[in-house]
Structure formats: C-alpha cells, structure tokens
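>> received
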Amino acid sequence: MLTPLQKQTAQAIVNLFETSSARGDYGAVTVIPGDTGHLSFGRSQTTLGSGNLHALLQRYCDNAGARFGPRLAPWLERLAPWLERLEQRDTTLDHELRLHNLLRATADDPVMREMQDQFFDEGYWQPAARIAAGMGIATPLGLAVVYDSLIQGSWKTVRDLTIAQAGRLADLGEHAWIDAYIATRHAWLAGNRRSDLRATTYRMEAFQRLAEQGYWGLELPLVVRGAELSPATLYATPPGCYDGPQPGTRSIALQTPLARGLDVRLLQLALSEQGIVIKADGIFGRTSANLLRDYQASAGLPPTGVADPALLGRLLG
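>> returned
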C-alpha cells in the first residue's frame, strides 16, 4: 500500500496535468474545443458529457452544509444525463457564464473541496488501486500511471494494446511493462483523431522522465512539468480559494495590489446573476471596477466603481 504522502504525490502529478496545479484547481471551469466531455469542472475536471458533473453537484447540493447548494439546485435538471445520446444533452451550458461563475465560487466552500476529494477518490483512485493490485503493479509511479489513464480515459484500450505489442506484466516485470505502457499510450495519444487528446502527449513524457530517472517510489522533492512537488506544496492552500474577507468588512475598490478574496468573488457572482458579463475569479481588477460602475449607473446609484458595505448588502442580501 502507498503511504498517504505517496498517494498525495501521485494525485498531485495528475492534478498538474488536469489544471496545472499540484493541489488541484477546485474551481477550474474548462471547455476545450472538440472535447466530447463538453463543460468540465473541478480538481480533476469531471464533465457534463460523462454525467459525472451532475453526480458531483447533486451530491454537493444534498449536503445540508453546502453554502451554494440552494443556488446550484435549479441547474441540476439541465445538467442531468437523462438523455441517451450526448448530442441531446444541454451543451448550451458550455457557454452559460452564470453557471460557470457559480461553479468557480463553490471552490471557496470547504464542503465542495471535501466533496471533490471524496468523489474523485471513489470514482478514480480506488478503482485504479484495485486494477493495479489485480495486475501486480506495486510501485507508486505505476499506480500513478493507471490513475492518470482512468482520469483521462481509455485505460483498457491502451492496456490491451500494450499486452498485444509488448507482452504481459507477469512476463516482463512491472518496470518494463509500465515503460511499454507509457510508450504505447504516447503513440496512441499522438495518433488520436481527436486534437484535444493529441495535445496531451506531455502526460506520458512526464511519466517517461520519472521512470528513466528511477523515481518509482515518487520520493520527494520532485519537479514535474516545471512545478515543485514537496510537502510544502502538496499541503498548501489550493490556488484561487478564499476564506475571507467576509462581505461588508471592507469597501472594495480598484487598488494596488488588487483586492482579492471571498467578498470580491461574491460581489462578482452577484453582478453575474444580474446579467452582467463578468468572470467571478475573486480578483477586483479594472474590468470589475468598470462593470460595477455600469451596474451602479443602471441602478441609479453614483457610478463610483467602489463597493461599500451598503452596496454589498444590497447586492448580496
């Protein structure tokens, strides 16, 4: 069995592949042209197309402590994978900025972060561990390769190709078989008809470098795709997550350095729900200030571009 730190390291490598962050970007909202998953969200990018995005959000909304549950609940029907054919699903959600901003905001809720950790552990890590154990894969690096393939998809296809082209793990030994699997998957990705998959060969190149350097135990510190993996980075606060300041405890205005935080995110989310085209990233830059001025003018308020506690109270209720 892997130690908790080895598990965290293996997952961090895949987090880097998925969202360019070792801790994982819990609020990442992505739509990649040509990706059949369509709208994807969270630390390991669960998708509309697979139905897993609905499953994650349903679980979150069912939690009585979910801060944004009541606001997300009305979206669940449109997210649900009731229809048999992907083409019939509501892929207009790929471009629904209000939903995207709400998803970004949920990353500030510890309930959502814990929910994502549980969801991806149950859906991907535990199955990967069972597959690895059944095949005789015992190294942390080998398990990370299996986990990555379950996250990205087509594990069984590439496993069977590897067996057909190179042989079985029992005959080759774990290191040689994983090396062969990495090479086979690299070729499979590079020649894939989908352009979004062709662009991900870097995943296998990163694993190949780790194998060549002998880091089968994923001993720390490591550098993967230019990112440091160490206890300090693996247990740091996830990027783009805010636990304060609370709304109303300060005025929000354009300043240097830029104001960031939970109150900024909630202000942007409230403006988004008023129909204003704004990204709720929790950073109050010039665009946010200009859009706030537009809202103030439309509401008959002095267009100062400053959100004082009174305005925040009006917008946030």
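>> The beta strands are 29-30, 40-41, 46-47, 222-224, 227-229, 259-260, 283-284.
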